[in-house]
C-alpha cells in the first residue's frame, strides 16, 4: 500500500460552497460587486497572447506595492492568497509537534493548517460578550509554542487589539522563541495596523491580501510583510512561480489608479452607513465588526433565515457554534446592495416566509 501522510489522511476539511455565481454573495467577506467594469475591461486588454505565454515577473508590482505600504521590496513575500501565506509560515517556523496559539472563533484555515502539518492547535476562546482576555492568550503561550497567530481585526468577531496588547503578546512570544503573525486581511476597512512593529521586533509577521477591499479574491494575491531574514526564509519555501501574472497585473493597475482605491473605500463606508441606519430603523439587534462584515440577530432561527434568503438569491453566513448560532453574518457592499439585502431580510425573516 502506498504511503499517505497521516496528518493529511486524518484532516477534516470543509470545502468552500460552489455554484455561488448567480447569487448576491454576502457570505464570504468578498466585495459583492467588485471593481468598476471599465477598469476591469482596460486591464483585460493588456492580456495579449505574448503576455499569457510568459512566466510571471513580480518585480514591477513588488516595487509599487512596497512604495504603497512604505517598506522595501525585501520586506515582502507574495503568496497565492494569504491562505498560502499561512501554510508557508507554519511550514517554515513551526517544528513538527510544536504548538500554535490562536483565538477562537477565528479564520478556520489556521486550525486546518495546524492539523495538516501535525501542529498542536491551542485556541483561546472569546467570551459571550465577544471580548477576549489578552492575559488568556499570553498564558496559552509556553515553551512548546512556535507561532502565535492573531487577526487584527479578528474574523468573525472581536474588537481590535491595542498596540499595548500586541506588544505584550510579542514580548511573551519572544521569551519562548515564537513568531507572532498579525493577519491584517481586513486592513483599510479599519485603519489600525501593527505593520511598523516589524521594524522593532525580529519575530513579527504581517499578512495582507488583495481579496478584500481590493476586490481580487478570484486572482489569489496575498502578501507577507516582515524583516528581510524572515522574508528570505519564506521565499525559499514557495514554488518558483507562486503568484500568477494576471493577479500581478490587476493589482499593479489598482495601485496605479489611486481613485479606484478611494472609490472602493467610500462605497464600503456609504454601504455600511446605509445598512446600519436601516437595521436601526427596523429595530434589529446587530454587531458591526471592524472588518467588512456585520452580525445581525434575526427574529427567526438563523439557519432558517439563511434558507429563506437563498430563495431570494442571497447568500449569508451562519455558524454552528454556541456563541454565534443565533446570528447571521453578512459582508457589506454598496448602498444599493445593502438596500436589496434589507428588502429581502424583511420579507424572509418570518416563519411564514418559509412556507411560501
Ligand atoms: C482573516 C483572514 N485571513 C486570510 C483570509 C484568506 O484570504 P486570501 O483570499 O488572501 O487567501 C481570509 C479570508 O476570508 C481571512 O478572513
TrEMBL record:
Per the UniProt entry, the Enzyme Commission number(s) are 2.6.1.9
Domain Aminotransferase class I/classII large, residue spans: 24-345
Q: Which reaction does it catalyse?
A: L-histidinol phosphate + 2-oxoglutarate = 3-(imidazol-4-yl)-2-oxopropyl phosphate + L-glutamate
Q: Fetch the Pfam families from UniProt.
A: Aminotran_1_2
Query: Which biological process terms from the Gene Ontology are attached to this UniProt entry?
Result: L-histidine biosynthetic process
Recorded GO terms, molecular function?
histidinol-phosphate transaminase activity; pyridoxal phosphate binding
| Signal sequence, start to end | none
Q: Where are the transmembrane segments?
A: none
Q: Does the keyword Mitochondrion apply?
A: no
What domain of life does the UniProt record list for this protein's source?
A: Bacteria
What keywords appear on the UniProt entry?
Amino-acid biosynthesis, Aminotransferase, Histidine biosynthesis, Pyridoxal phosphate, Transferase
Q: Which InterPro entries match?
A: Aminotransferase_I/II_large (IPR004839), HistidinolP_aminotransfase (IPR050106), PyrdxlP-dep_Trfase (IPR015424), PyrdxlP-dep_Trfase_major (IPR015421), PyrdxlP-dep_Trfase_small (IPR015422)
Per the record, the pathway is: Amino-acid biosynthesis; L-histidine biosynthesis; L-histidine from 5-phospho-alpha-D-ribose 1-diphosphate: step 7/9
Q: What is the enzyme's main class? A: transferase
The record's section on PANTHER family has: HISTIDINOL-PHOSPHATE AMINOTRANSFERASE, HISTIDINOL-PHOSPHATE AMINOTRANSFERASE 2
Its family remark reads: Belongs to the class-II pyridoxal-phosphate-dependent aminotransferase family. Histidinol-phosphate aminotransferase subfamily.
- What this protein is called in its record is histidinol-phosphate transaminase
Question: Organism source for this protein?
Answer: Candidatus Galacturonatibacter soehngenii
Amino acid at each position: 500500500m502506498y504511503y499517505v501522510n497521516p496528518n493529511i489522511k486524518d484532516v477534516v476539511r470543509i470545502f468552500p460552497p460552489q455554484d455561488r455565481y448567480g447569487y448576491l454573495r454576502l457570505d464570504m467577506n468578498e466585495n459583492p460587486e467588485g471593481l468598476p467594469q471599465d477598469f476591469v475591461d482596460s486591464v483585460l486588454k493588456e492580456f495579449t497572447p505574448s503576455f499569457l505565454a510568459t512566466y510571471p515577473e513580480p518585480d514591477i508590482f513588488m516595487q509599487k506595492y512596497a512604495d504603497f505600504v512604505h517598506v522595501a521590496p525585501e520586506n515582502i513575500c507574495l503568496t497565492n492568497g494569504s491562505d498560502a501565506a499561512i501554510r508557508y509560515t507554519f511550514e517554515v517556523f513551526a517544528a513538527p509537534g510544536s504548538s500554535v496559539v490562536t483565538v477562537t472563533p477565528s479564520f478556520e484555515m489556521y486550525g486546518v493548517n495546524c492539523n495538516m502539518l501535525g501542529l498542536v492547535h491551542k485556541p483561546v476562546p472569546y467570551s459571550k460578550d465577544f471580548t477576549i482576555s489578552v492575559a488568556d492568550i499570553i498564558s496559552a503561550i509556553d515553551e512548546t509554542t512556535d507561532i502565535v497567530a492573531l487577526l487584527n481585526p479578528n474574523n468573525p468577531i472581536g474588537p481590535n487589539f491595542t498596540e499595548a496588547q500586541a506588544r505584550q503578546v510579542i514580548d511573551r512570544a519572544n521569551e519562548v522563541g515564537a513568531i507572532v503573525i498579525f493577519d491584517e486581511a481586513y486592513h483599510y476597512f479599519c485603519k489600525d495596523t501593527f505593520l511598523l512593529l516589524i521594524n522593532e521586533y525580529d519575530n513579527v509577521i504581517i499578512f495582507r491580501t488583495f481579496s478584500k477591499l481590493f476586490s481580487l479574491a478570484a486572482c489569489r494575491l496575498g502578501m507577507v510583510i516582515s524583516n528581510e531574514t524572515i522574508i528570505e526564509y519564506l521565499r525559499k519555501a514557495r514554488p518558483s512561480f507562486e503568484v500568477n501574472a494576471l493577479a500581478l497585473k490587476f493589482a499593479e493597475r489598482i495601485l496605479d489608479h489611486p481613485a479606484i482605491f478611494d472609490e472602493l473605500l467610500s462605497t464600503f463606508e456609504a454601504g455600511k452607513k446605509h445598512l446600519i441606519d436601516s437595521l436601526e430603523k427596523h429595530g434589529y439587534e446587530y454587531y458591526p465588526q471592524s472588518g467588512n462584515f456585520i452580525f445581525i440577530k434575526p427574529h427567526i432561527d438563523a439557519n432558517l433565515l439563511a434558507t429563506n434568503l437563498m430563495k431570494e438569491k442571497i447568500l449569508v453566513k451562519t455558524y454552528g457554534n454556541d456563541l454565534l448560532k443565533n446570528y447571521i453574518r453578512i459582508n457589506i457592499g454598496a448602498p444599493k446592495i445593502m438596500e436589496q439585502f434589507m428588502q429581502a431580510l424583511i420579507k424572509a425573516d418570518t416563519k411564514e416566509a418559509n412556507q411560501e
